[in-house]
Amino acid sequence: MNADYALLSADDAEQAAADWLARLDREGLLSGPVDVDALCDARHDFDVWVNAEMGHRVAFLRAATAWSRAERLAALKTHDAIPRRSILQRPVVQMLAAAACIAMAILVVIPLGLFEGASGQPAPLHYQTARGEMKTLTLEDGSVLTLNTDTSVDVLFSKDERQVALIEGEVFFDVAKAPERPFLIDAGEGQVRVLGTSFGIERRQGVVEVAVSEGTVWVGSAAHADTSESILTPGMIGYASANGVIVETSDVAAVDQRLLWREGRLRFDDTPLRDVAAEFNRYNTIQLVVTDEATGDIEIGGTFRLDNVEAFARLANDGLGLDVSHAPGRIELSSE
């Protein structure tokens, strides 16, 4: 964390992000898709703030996704117009919706209903995983799907198309090449068309995020088809919604770390403990509970087994000096 900026709470970071959006817009720096790295080059003080800690960058990306010509005032006035609510209830987060893929894929935001066809159409095959479970499926065309924890998909193949509906959760796709038989993925708010490649898509409470590890991706928004589109290459992360497209440039190593769940591991880099706990809780019946804000602000780095929450709790006690208490179905972490 940069010493020039004190650690902000999630609410304060979002308000600061909204203030930065207003400032950058006044200076004419938001005329196209939001590019964080380009903004860092243009404004040194923004570079210092957004890279001071991961929470700042996440807050800015969330706010920028809601930043469209029609929604700018709402994005800036979130904290003034309504009482503060949980992160998933805030309008900025509720407006997020994205879907993308790797290797010449096209994303268009469309209504739901990928499987709505003529009467008599075969019923899709349904697959799902429970909390902490992972499953690998080999489809009839040779494509391989790896389902992460708490994931649900429907699969329906015809002679002309291959269709998958991601109902919830996260899937890593390794799609067999068949240009004459497109591979379509319905991720709730949009549709992805793939000719053959490998990529991961996560859908969680209406938000879909894609990180590119190989290939090239074209991402566009149906609501702003003529003004908002981006080409993603390896190491880039794209977020798309009805409000437009934003791009974050990372690196391939970071993208690969994003997919470590396939190896049973989780990677954190200066991640607030509250977010670390939430990620562990996706995989374990024993839930980590952070009891106070100061403890939740502690930054965690390292790679951990995703199914060994007890070992992480011992590390929190021995390495961080946190108080750890056990109760049925939960482990409470506190610095008080």
Automatic annotation (TrEMBL):
<protein>
    <recommendedName>
        <fullName>FecR protein domain-containing protein</fullName>
    </recommendedName>
</protein>
<dbReference type="GO" id="GO:0016989">
    <property type="term" value="F:sigma factor antagonist activity"/>
</dbReference>
<keyword id="KW-1133">Transmembrane helix</keyword>
<dbReference type="InterPro" id="IPR006860">
    <property type="entry name" value="FecR"/>
</dbReference>
<dbReference type="Pfam" id="PF04773">
    <property type="entry name" value="FecR"/>
</dbReference>
<feature type="domain" description="FecR protein">
    <location>
        <begin position="127"/>
        <end position="217"/>
    </location>
</feature>
<dbReference type="InterPro" id="IPR012373">
    <property type="entry name" value="Ferrdict_sens_TM"/>
</dbReference>
<feature type="transmembrane region" description="Helical">
    <location>
        <begin position="92"/>
        <end position="115"/>
    </location>
</feature>
<keyword id="KW-0812">Transmembrane</keyword>
<keyword id="KW-0472">Membrane</keyword>
